[in-house]
Amino acid sequence: MSKKERKPGKRRARAQAAPTSAHMDCRELFALLSQYLDAELKPEACSEIERHLKDCAPCVAFLNTLRKTAELCRQYRPAEAPRPLRQEAREQLRAAYQAACLSRKSKVQGSKSKV
Ligand SMILES: [Zn+2]
Question: Could you tell me the CA-to-CA distances from 97 to 10, 69, 108 in Å, in that order?
């Protein structure tokens, strides 16, 4: 009888797959912000965003930009059906967001003096 018992095989380190990050990433926030402005988010998500905004000044600035842009978009196209941000506006916001994140990164962890 050479029936081997089930070997566990490779050890699975099941820690790295799903990091339950208590803190929302800037990118996640960015993805949620437009919905946030449209009030499509669940209350839990909103509080997540607000928690992140407390600690992340660049995202606050970004949110302000997003708000302004969204308002402008609505003012510019009052007759059109209510839509999320237009592509142009999205690109502008993305640029503003990336600039914000870059400035934050360079402050927090950018020890390289790159010009
Ligand atoms: Zn942030």
Answer: 42, 13, 16
